Amino acid sequence: MKRISKNLVLLFLAAFSLQACDDNDDVATPKNLQINNFIWRGLNEVYLWQADVPNLADNRFADQNALDSFLKGYSKPEDLFEDLLNKPESKYPNGDAIDRFSWIVDDYTVLEQELNGITKNSGIDFRLSRQSTGSNNLVGYIRYIIPNSDASGKSIKRGDLFTSVNGTPLTISNYESLLLDSDSYTLNLADYNGSTFVLNGKSVSLTKTVLEENPVLITKTITSGSHKIGYLMYNGFYNEYDDALNQAFSQLKTSGVTDLVLDLRYNGGGSVHSATLLASMITGQFKDQVFSKRQYNSKIMTGLTNDDLESFNERFTDKTGSGATLNSLNLNTVYIITTGSTASASELVVNGLKPYITVIQIGETTVGKNVGSFTVYDSETLSKTKVNPTHKYAMQPLVFKITNSANFGDYTGGLPPTYQQTESVFTYGVLGDPSEPLLNLAISKITGSTAKRTQTDKDQTLPYFSDSKSMRRFGREMYIDSPLKN
């Protein structure tokens, strides 16, 4: 994977250092303000919307003393971070937010683990919905069970409903404390009687463990008439599993698939590099052509050479990061299942492939995350090299906008499906089964057959509230490595 060029970053940091000497009179930052100073300095340098935040302007503070005076007004680094963002969702929750995805953490070890799919997790991937429009009461339902987790050995499965945790009804005000704050909890299961959700007396006790999720959940081949349809359910773009993804494509290639259904319905994103590899495995005939382009803030983009701009491109490849040859399918059409939980790097695959092959999107409109990040550490280069040893704060701010090779990247409202079908818990089906509604619709478009009717008298679309991936701070991430190697 290409990183921001080392020379570019050094030039840009050198410019900052000269400015800092002029503006701040070489005054050292007090120890009690080191974290706050790091937040301001990092966002001033790399934040995508730096020019739109007055307090991040280069000339906002006359010297270091003036900056320190401003920073002293924040006893919590998290509050400073939020105040330096461009209309964050925490302050603009009703659809007016610009920055929906920047985060800060007080322990970068946890951040690094989550970006590789390592979380403290009971093993249930779930969605939360309001029980009815305007209701403060929530219902949860299981989307899938993570293999080798605590839940994988319990009596709980896809489609199970729950309305209480530890005997307490789930609401919009307590769901985080009930589901996130405890390492052990009991889900109280429920049934739907046609009009309301009713506890059925069943419960499942779950315990969170440190869990590393393999995002390649299902790989199989479905024969339908003259078509051999490959089906791949892929739930996260984690660099550590690039070789496992390549192995899945080896399985599909060996079986002689003629078509591919890529299921990204619950994939919240991850590594840009992994997204590029996936696109290269689907195709294979576009080696070295541009897959995506990144654009940074005006401070970084000003005065760049063609070589610098090239370092912001991702190109189709034929090798994994470990040097293994990709098992590419050389397809000219791909069918991709998406829902309202499909985000960031997943959307990048859809958008990045469109200039090259036919992309048939099945399901629902995606989240609309066309911006990404890298981890910003407290060091001179903002990388993990010579990081400040006095704390473990790090930021994952939005730093770039991404487009495809045709320069299209304006999809903040989401990428709409070619064929619309809303996923409903009442007609869920089994993932990977040809009769599962969204997969069945994809198969019908491949073969020209008629999709099975999935609507029932009790079917309804429950108002979306949240899901287990979006509840994690990095569940909808799109990122590259730090500008410099660690």
Any overview of this molecule?
With 486 residues, this protein is an alpha+beta fold. It has three domains: 6-106, no CATH class; 120-210, Pdz3 Domain; 216-456, 2-enoyl-CoA Hydratase, Chain A, domain 1 (Alpha-Beta Complex). The two termini are 14 Å apart. A hairpin with a 7-residue loop joins strand 3 and strand 4 (138-145). Helix 7 packs parallel to helix 8 (272-282) and helix 8 (272-282) packs parallel to helix 11 (345-353). The radius of gyration is 24 Å and the shape is globular. Helices cover 24% and strands 25% of the residues. Strands 3, 4, 5, 6, 7, 8 and 23 form a seven-stranded antiparallel beta sheet that branches. The model is unreliable at 1-8 and 10-25 (pLDDT under 50).
Core attributes:
single chain; alpha+beta; six-stranded mixed sheet; seven-stranded antiparallel sheet; 486 residues; 13 helices; 24 strands; Pdz3 Domain; disordered N terminus; 2-enoyl-CoA Hydratase, Chain A, domain 1
Q: Got a strand count?
A: 24
Q: State the shape.
A: globular
Output the CATH topology of the largest domain: 2-enoyl-CoA Hydratase, Chain A, domain 1
Largest sheet: 7 strands, antiparallel
Helix percent band: 10-25%
Any idea what the CATH architecture of the largest domain is?
Alpha-Beta Complex
The CATH homologous superfamily of the largest domain corresponds to 2-enoyl-CoA Hydratase, Chain A, domain 1
Distance between the termini: 14 Å
> Which class best fits the helix and strand makeup?
alpha+beta
Compute the number of helices: 13
Which residue ranges are poorly predicted, with pLDDT under 50 across at least 5 consecutive positions?
1-8, 10-25
Number of spatially distinct domains:
3
Average pLDDT confidence is: 91
Beta-strand percent range? 15-25%
Q: Supply Rg.
A: 24 Å
CATH class of the largest domain: Alpha Beta
